[in-house]
């Protein structure tokens, strides 16, 4: 009976892992096939194994340019989000403005409750008014703004668990507010910062609606928008489509694989106070 109780949860976990990993395997497998084999044998292994879909993606669809655009916009937006969020979180958890801190918390909480689609028209008008349509700023500013509320909450939860004696010792040593933030708080919050960096980066990298709305110039498009270009009403290049999807998810998988230990530490960091 004990063995059965241990076996059943493992079977459910194996089934869950299979459901998660199989679509990725299917994409990877299909990306190495020719379109004729995809139509005739979609579930089989590549025969022959070919890299022509990846070659086509880089040579015929500007996938390299789209990749750089996604990398640049996602990186700049995420870094700006982290910098602004840690400053806000430090101000509302450490500085003596209790009433103001409550108002800021309330505003951030309300911003999380606003449906993103309801902001599309105001954002579009704002982008046109600022004359940044068809520029990277048209995405960097909204991405940064949307990422701040949740990032502030996560960082603030961790900062509340840090003993104030550390900062008091820094003040005795003559550190300014910026010195405390840069030399004491920032190194201690690194696991949490890595976690929110990945969360924001993943959201920015995969975002489609704003990128499709604010960037009509083909040379400025991001990967999620570019992937759709493999569809049309007459024909779909499934091999190149799967190859482009694999190219778009590869950086996220790589970053997560390298930083997974830090991510787990960050998730646990603010869970216990004291």
Entry keywords:
274 residues, mainly alpha, MetI-like fold, 13 helices
Report the CATH C-level class: Mainly Alpha
Strand content: under 5%
Number of domains: 1
Specify the biggest β-sheet: none
- What is the CATH superfamily? MetI-like
Order of helices and strands: HHHHHHHHHHHHH
Structure summary, number of beta strands: 0
CATH hierarchy: architecture = Orthogonal Bundle
State the low-pLDDT regions, or none.
none
User: Radius of gyration from the CA trace?
Assistant: 23 Å
Q: What's the number of helices?
A: 13
Average pLDDT confidence is 82
- Distance from N terminus to C terminus (CA atoms, Å) equals 41 Å
Under CATH, the topology can be stated as MetI-like fold
Shape: globular
Structural class: mainly alpha
Fraction in helix = over 70%
Transmembrane segments: 12-32, 63-91, 103-124, 136-159, 180-202, 238-259
Organism: Paenibacillus glacialis
Family: Belongs to the binding-protein-dependent transport system permease family.
Keywords: Cell membrane, Membrane, Transmembrane, Transmembrane helix, Transport
Overall description:
It is a single chain. This protein has one domain: MetI-like (MetI-like fold). The mean pLDDT is 82. The protein has helices at 2-31, 35-40, 52-60, 63-94, 98-113, 120-129, 137-159, 164-172, 177-188, 190-206, 209-214, 223-227, 238-269. It contains 13 helices and no strands. Helix 1 packs across helix 13 (238-269) and helix 3 (52-60) packs across helix 13. The chain is mostly helical and 274 residues long.
């Amino acid at each position: 009976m004990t063995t059965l109780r241990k076996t059943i949860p493992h079977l459910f976990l194996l089934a869950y892992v299979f459901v998660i990993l199989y679509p990725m395997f299917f994409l990877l497998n299909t990306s190495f096939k020719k379109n004729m084999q995809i139509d005739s044998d979609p579930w089989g292994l590549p025969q022959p194994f070919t890299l022509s879909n990846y070659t086509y993606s880089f040579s015929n669809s500007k996938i390299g340019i789209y990749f750089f655009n996604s990398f640049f916009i996602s990186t700049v937006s995420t870094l700006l989000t982290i910098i602004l969020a840690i400053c806000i979180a430090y101000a509302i958890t450490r500085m003596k403005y209790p009433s103001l801190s409550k108002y800021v918390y309330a505003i951030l909480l309300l911003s999380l409750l606003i449906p993103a689609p309801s902001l599309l028209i105001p954002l579009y008008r704002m982008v046109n008014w600022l004359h940044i349509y068809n520029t990277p700023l048209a995405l960097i500013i909204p991405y940064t703004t949307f990422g701040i509320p949740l990032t502030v909450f996560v960082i603030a939860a961790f900062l509340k668990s840090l003993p104030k004696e550390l900062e008091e010792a820094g003040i005795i040593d003559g550190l300014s507010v910026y010195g405390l933030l840069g030399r004491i708080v920032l190194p201690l919050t690194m696991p949490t910062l890595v976690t929110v960096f990945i969360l924001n980066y993943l959201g920015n990298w995969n975002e489609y609606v704003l990128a499709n709305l604010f960037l009509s110039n083909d040379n400025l498009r991001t990967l999620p928008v570019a992937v759709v270009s493999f569809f049309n009403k007459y024909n779909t290049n499934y091999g190149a489509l799967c190859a482009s999807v694999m190219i778009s998810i590869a950086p996220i998988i790589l970053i997560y694989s390298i930083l997974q230990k830090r991510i787990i530490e960050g998730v646990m960091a603010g869970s216990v106070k004291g």
